[in-house]
Amino acid sequence: MKRILVMGISAGAGKSTFARKLGDLLQINVHHLDTLFWKPGWKESSVDEFRSSLEEIVTSPTWIIEGNYSNTYDIRATHADTIIYLEVPRLVCLYRVLKRWLTHLGQTRPDMAEGCKEKMELSFLKFIWTTYYPRKEKMYKRFEQFQLTGQNKTVIKLKNKAQIHDFLHELERKHTIL
């Protein structure tokens, strides 16, 4: 695992937290897509700017890129050797998004671009609720494509808090032995 994508079923899946812990364990720099996409005051980067910044990162020998953003999936997936996919239940995602909002109210999260104070909109909660299952289907089709096209990628699916914890614990154990 040297070039790792951390993706999730939805916002609130735990991608940022997981990626930080993974980066600490493996001593690999973590890049949060939200910090690359958003500019201060919640201004969006252009698609060209966003893609260009990712194209720079993926040329490095090691990286962890955390986030979903379909419009740059091709860049990340082409260069990744490992994809870790977090698929926690939909209600857990909603709970975590609301908890994150309350925890960081009026502040900028560490995995967010500077000047983007935490906010909550009903449309965002609705997005999480309505896109959960279509996104799940889309991700499984993407993973199937790796097998069908013979791409040598490791796909790790973690579906709950216990699996996520066990994965990180086992990785830490292996690194302690080495």
UniProtKB/TrEMBL annotation:
InterPro entries: Cytidylate_Kinase-2 (IPR052922), P-loop_NTPase (IPR027417). GO terms for molecular function: kinase activity. Keywords: Kinase, Transferase. Gene3D superfamilies: P-loop containing nucleotide triphosphate hydrolases. The keyword Nucleus does not apply. Signal peptide: none annotated. The keyword Kinase applies. It comes from the Bacteria. This is Adenylate kinase family enzyme.
